[in-house]
Amino acid sequence: MIKIMTVFGTRPEAIKMAPLIKKLEESREIKSIVCVTAQHRQMLDQVLELFNINPDYDLNIMKDRQSITGITTNVLKGIEEVILKENPDMILVHGDTTTTFAGSLAAFYQKVPVGHVEAGLRSGDKYSPYPEEINRSLTGRIASIHFAPTISNKNNLLEENIAEKDITITGNTVIDALMMAIDKDYKFSEEKLNNIDFDNKKVILLTSHRRENLGQPMINIFNSVKRIIEENKDVEIVFPVHLNPKVRELVKSVLGEVERVHLIEPLDYKPFVNLMSKCDIIMSDSGGIQEEAPSLGKPVIVLRKETERPEAVEAGTVKIVGIEENDVYEAVNTLIKDKNEYDKMANAINPYGDGKASDRIVKGILEYFNKP
Ligand code: UD1
Ligand code: UDP
Prior knowledge:
The protein is of the alpha/beta class. It has helices at 11-26, 42-50, 68-86, 98-109, 132-142, 151-159, 173-181, 191-194, 216-231, 245-255, 269-278, 288-296, 310-314, 325-337, 339-345, 357-368; strands at residues 2-8, 30-36, 57-58, 90-94, 114-117, 145-148, 167-169, 202-207, 235-240, 261-264, 281-284, 300-302, 318-320. The strands form two sheets. Strands 3-2-1-4-5-6-7 form a seven-stranded parallel β-sheet, sandwiched between helices. Helix 4 (98-109) links the parallel strand 4 (90-94) and strand 5. Helix 1 crosses helix 7, helix 1 crosses helix 16 and helix 3 crosses helix 4. It is globular. The two termini are 13 Å apart. The structure holds uridine-diphosphate-N-acetylglucosamine and uridine-5'-diphosphate (UDP). Uridine-diphosphate-N-acetylglucosamine binds next to helix 1 and helix 2.
């Protein structure tokens, strides 16, 4: 059997690796091992529980207000130990977090081939998103096989002289996960959400966590939210606040006491995506949400200056508005006031795959080991 060790540590990696782990477990040719770094603790555990994944190894590295250097060194050391013990034939990493890069580097040092899931996303700006753009580029240099969600992701890799034979277009596993979690009859167990009148109010879902938005950009965004609330009495804002204490302090200082702004804890994946599907507008700096929203036909106002997800912009569901207070305010206000503009963005188009990305990745791994 081929021993495949999956390594991940944060909420989005867990969500997008979970369907793949299920498929690896089903394969008769593969022995699947799961190693979590726990770069995130609570937000990772929420996902592990939902998808019923019991890691074989848990490095438990999360520290309050951790630094990127701290994450990198702890993951490098921890993964090395596990690799020396398990001797896997390949490690699989996902996307662009510091767990992704440090996990890949640890594998490279032990000459273990790396499979990169969600390969080839690029913004072209070294510092935005930071540190993700460099994490994913360096992981791309290390990886032996690249599972690119879309053709444009593949083209980015070809431009960096990655051999075509090493790239497979798979779609994004986030669609596999979304299909497992969406339920049109879903009832929230959170009382705050059940009390919201989704039929008669305009409900905006807000998330923000990006490192480059900490500080003034987040203050600008939250001030624009205040203006939207003050001027539109029929708007309610739901904001599941990321557990990063730096984010929480900023949120509390600007939005702590604002009526119709519901600050709640991070939601489990199932209630979260079902909230996405019930709300009217999404404001977010998240990567994963830009991929889920087109499937659900929900307009996303992206609180960033760039995106590595041009497919969602082309699909029309996602608009990049930057991080200036007035720009964010204008973009959201237009969607609230102008039905034509809203309808233009609210088309359910899915550029990210058919929910079978995990099957294609398993097939790609078997081919790599000449086991078709
Ligand atoms: C990380 C990733 C980012 C990804 C994001 C998804 C890096 C450098 N950043 O950013 O690419 O988009 O996850 O959410 O890899 N915390 C908790 N409990 C948790 C999670 C976080 O308390 O379950 C707190 C801790 O104090 C921690 C801090 O949040 O130190 C920041 O976590 P960290 O993983 O360093 O950064 P994120 O902003 O979450
Ligand atoms: N998400 C969640 N609960 C929340 C907020 C987000 O389950 O309260 C999910 C969301 O559906 C998406 C993923 O988390 O799949 C995105 O994670 P995040 O925004 O933290 O990271 P990014 O995608 O920006 O790296």
